[in-house]
Design goal:
The N and C termini lie far apart (84 Å). With 141 residues, the protein is an all-alpha fold. It contains four helices and no strands.
């Protein structure tokens, strides 16, 4: 009889330990889900992860402004002209920045070519071009 009571005690503790493992696993799983969801929300909120917005042209923006502020046709036309000028100016600034970046990249490539031997430069240039492609922003529609 004494042997059976020891077996029951061992089984009882094994069940408790198994239950404890299951509870710990569930707590860890739920914590991971909560942390992952919270981190994703923060990244989206602070725009670390960019969620694409549809591109709006000046006509669409003007229509929204006209509706929101009850603009007449003359005001709407003036607003659209203002927005067109602003968009053109921004586009020119973007193009200038892109040209400057390209010039700086070409200067860097030339300097690295002077320092590295042919094999090293080819490997570095391949990696550099891949990196440039990775961070190149997609063109707007």
């Amino acid at each position: 009889m004494e042997i059976k009571s020891e077996e029951n005690i061992v089984k009882h503790y094994q069940h408790k330990r198994t239950l404890l493992w299951i509870i710990c696993a569930a707590v860890i799983l739920i914590s991971g889900i909560v942390i992952g969801a919270g981190t994703t929300m923060l990244l989206v909120k602070h725009r670390v992860i960019w969620i694409g917005r549809p591109y709006k042209d000046t006509a669409a923006i003007t229509k929204e402004i006209s509706k929101r502020y009850d603009l007449n046709e003359q005001q709407a036309k003036q607003v659209e002209d203002i927005l067109n000028r602003a968009f053109e100016k921004k586009q020119l600034q973007r193009e200038e920045r892109d040209k400057q970046r390209e010039q700086e990249a070409q200067l860097l490539i030339a300097e690295m070519n002077e320092v590295l031997n042919r094999e090293q430069f080819e490997r570095w240039n391949k990696d550099f071009q891949e990196l440039r492609e990775k961070f190149k922003k997609p063109a707007k529609k």
